[in-house]
Amino acid sequence: MSTELLPPAQPSFVLRGHSAQVHAVRFTQGNTRLLSADAEGWLVSWNLASKRPAAVWRAHSNAVLGISSWGQDRIITHGRDSKLVVWQLNLRDEEAIGKTLPVDNPPATTPQPWLLHILTVNTLNFCSFAMCLDGMPQPYTIHTAIKARNHPPPILIAVPNTIDSGGVDIYQLPSESRAAVIHADRNITTGMVMALEIQTESTRLQVVAGYESGHTMVFVQSDPGAQFQRLYCAQPHTQPILSMAIFPSRDSYLTSSADAIVAKHPLPAVQGIWKTELKPFKIAQTKHSGQQGLQIRSDGKIFATAGWDARVRVYSSKTMKELAVLKWHKLGCYTTAFAEIGSCHLIKAEDDVSIKPEDGEDEDERRVIHRRTAVSTVQQRREVKAQSTHWLAAGSKDGKISLWDIY
Questions:
Q1: Using only C-alpha atoms, what is the Rg of the chain?
Q2: Do residues 57 and 37 lie in contact, with contact meaning Cβ atoms separated by under 8 Å?
Q3: Residue 53 — φ and ψ, nearest 5°?
Q4: Is the backbone of residue 397 left (phi > 0), alpha (psi -120 to 50) or beta?
Q5: Residue ranges of E strands in 39-144
Q6: Which of 201, 287, 280 is nearest to 244 (CA)?
Q7: Residue 112 carries which DSSP code?
Q8: For 250, left (φ over 0), alpha (ψ -120 to 50), or beta?
């Protein structure tokens, strides 16, 4: 059958709960939860097995720019109230958090997860934070060994500089100390930082920045305390860069912009640090302006963008060609997220369901046990399906989140 005759793809589910535009979405907890955050500061943790809210709270007094997860039980949110906040929320704590969705007018004060860290950061750029694990070796003591068993490893956070909107501040958590600063390049007029990515390789630190001018640059710090060196600079875009993402292979990255271009850039390894060609690998003219929320799936095979034209587009990472156009939302889309592929521990449907009645139990008791076993089996099957589905989530200006099961 010709693909032209096939009906347009439809989302598998639509999550309706936000009364304001959705700015960020993120899969967590082995794909059992989807975090979504909106322009009024509300954050919802959705149970993907039941498609219902597991926890709802107001994380910021202004719009949320970005969210991420740190370890199994920490959530990082970045708001327009100039705060970057780390919350602690594990699955067993969800019962204590409210579940009234923003669209249902929750009370002004609702229970919140445990607040671990607050950083005062620059949010004038509308640029969300980037994070990675801290590659620096940590001093080993009995105290740090015990702490490491109960806490996730230290991380680095990159945000626009507080004073210089073209510079970058790098903080370390949990110490909350500023680890490094990248100053704006005075030889090139770049404007504000619009998008950031960061990664480490042992003690070597790479920061990728996208700017208002359409430039993108890669900065490298070879040793802690050393000055950052600009390794790569290109201007494939004529409009501000809106989003970027590093491939899982860690050797290249993508940028999208307010113009219609999606570009692929080099990100060299240590041995090739001075062999990088100062030009993008590939520049794709998509003919669709305003693509943001760029995300690459964990297997590196495809990536997706959210469009101002209310379309979500899926591309091949190898050819940069458009594979699918997902149209359901009526208003512009701002953010996308892929579920992790093959990295989560699946709950087996047959686990903990072989409950054998003890001798002396009457028929009613046996029926109750059988009914509980059946309910448990159904719940586990739902959880397995939620964890194993190749979800693509998209958040829109209409306050809705569409869940797609493609590729």
A1: 23
A2: no
A3: -70, 130
A4: alpha
A5: 42-47, 52-58, 64-70, 74-79, 83-88, 114-120, 130-133
A6: 280
A7: -
A8: left
As beta bridge partners, residue 96 has: none
SS3 at position 347: coil
| Dihedral-angle region of residue 146 (phi above 0 means left; psi in -120 to 50 means alpha; beta otherwise) | alpha
* pLDDT for residue 349: 37
* Residue segments in the chain with a per-residue pLDDT below the cut of 70: 1-6, 136-150, 269-277, 343-376
- The one-letter code for the residue type at 306 is A
> Can you give the length of the chain in residues?
407
Single out the residue of 41, 113, 47 nearest to residue 382, CA to CA.
Answer: 47
Q: Order across the sheet with 252-257: list the strands.
A: 241-246, 252-257, 261-266, 282-285
What span, in angstroms and rounded, lies between the C-alpha atoms of 134 and 308? 35
Question: Tokens 């009370």 identify what position?
Answer: 107
First to last CA, the chain: 19
Contact (CB, 8 A) for 233 and 278: yes
Interval 307-322: pLDDT, tens: 999 999 999 999 999 9
Asked if 41 and 60 touch (Cβ cutoff 8 Å), the reply is yes
